[in-house]
Design goal:
5 strands; 10 helices; alpha+beta; 3-stranded antiparallel sheet
């Protein structure tokens, strides 16, 4: 029963990543005894599909899990303007060739930032595929004066972001529907079906 509820949560909150249209999703899960075993099991079966499950923070009542596609996340972090932005926050992204080499250290630093800020550091939006203009705009405006609010607050290209939001919603609907036809077992479904979607918006 726990596994089925967990699969439903993951399908609902990480579908865009699982379907290949987003570099990463962050999901908050209730604590349970078999969490570490579950993470190992998912990684064992899905790393070969470039899907990774990485715990970034745990407390008494919940745990934050970063679900990402490694190649897509590395490509995102390698983009020069985003690298410069992350470097200003202390991330070890000195050169694009360093990103893959220091990838584990980058994730560890992100976890430290989450703990030190006691919440979500603004730069986490870069990891989650938010446009840089929206991340910078949110910081500069303290979360106010946005053009539109969807999966995040939009300060840049509203049309582009709205298309992304629609694409993410479609991914969630498709995966939720597919999961129902697969007896609710997300891992088995992902291991036997290619869910990669066209990233173009």
């Amino acid at each position: 029963m726990i596994q089925q509820k967990l699969d439903t949560l993951l399908a609902s909150h990480t579908a865009p990543t699982l379907m290949g249209v987003k570099p990463a999703n962050l999901v908050s899960l209730p604590r349970f005894e078999t969490f570490e075993q579950m993470v190992r099991n998912y990684n064992t079966h899905l790393n070969q599909q470039d899907i990774y499950f990485h715990p970034v923070c745990q407390c008494n009542c919940k745990q934050l899990l970063l679900v990402y596609r490694k190649s897509e996340l590395i490509n995102t972090l390698c983009q020069s303007q985003k690298r410069a932005f992350l470097l200003s926050y202390g991330y070890p992204v000195y050169h694009k060739t360093n990103v893959e080499l220091y990838f584990d250290e980058i994730l560890s630093y992100l976890a430290q930032r989450i703990l030190s800020t006691k919440g979500f550091p603004h730069e986490i939006g870069i990891f989650l595929g938010y446009p840089l203009e929206d991340v910078v705009g949110f910081i500069a405006n303290n979360g106010c004066n946005y053009k539109y609010s969807g999966c995040w607050k939009v300060y840049g290209d509203e049309t582009y972001s709205r298309r992304l939001f629609a694409q993410y919603k479609s991914c969630k609907q498709q995966l939720s529907h597919a999961l129902k036809s697969a007896d609710g077992n997300l891992l088995n479904y992902l291991c036997t079906n290619s869910m990669i979607q066209d990233r173009r918006v």
